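Quick one: structure for this chain?
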Amino acid sequence: MQPHDGTDRRETILRVACTLLQQQGYHRTTMDHIAHHAGMSKKTLYLFFPSKRALVEQLLLSELFVPLTPSLTPEIGMEEQLRAMIFKMADILLCEKRLGLLRTIIGETNRSPSIQQLMTELFHTADSKTSMRNWLDEQKKAGRLHFDNAADAADHLFGLTIGAPMLSRLAHCSPARDKDSLHHYLEEGLRIFLHGCRTTPPIKNRADQ
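Got it. Here's what it folds into:
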């Protein structure tokens, strides 16, 4: 088997698993089903993934926990770095394929302790290695931004930008924004976030003076 053949088969398995999970749910999707729809034997499938849990874990990591690495080149300023990360995150998370997978996983966490445990573990792992949180922490240390806690600041940033469009899509509350409308919304959220985290000392500190 050529290396690229292995990569292609792995991608096929993940794609098929993603589709079947959304159609059938976690428990009804078996390794037999995945192998059949991927056009390979169950034995071949197990060469790539030793268990269904390992397969689903890799699927979630590759689709929902995509690492975002900011550009640290000197010629790109702080605002442009942040803008690039948020727009990239929007491209990733507001994709209908990933939204469909996320809807399925949210539903499964209420019914499946194994999925609930897996998501908890993945969130814990992702949180300890979050590029956005680390990036914000670096900006704070450099004196460019002010906030109490980088993890909370990352949550506030997400809420001001991608949070509402993502929630409305997940709950089918409103149709998807067109590209221009989404970009305007993200820019406004970034402006509000940066305005609140500029180098001016926090309000509680100013009140003590």
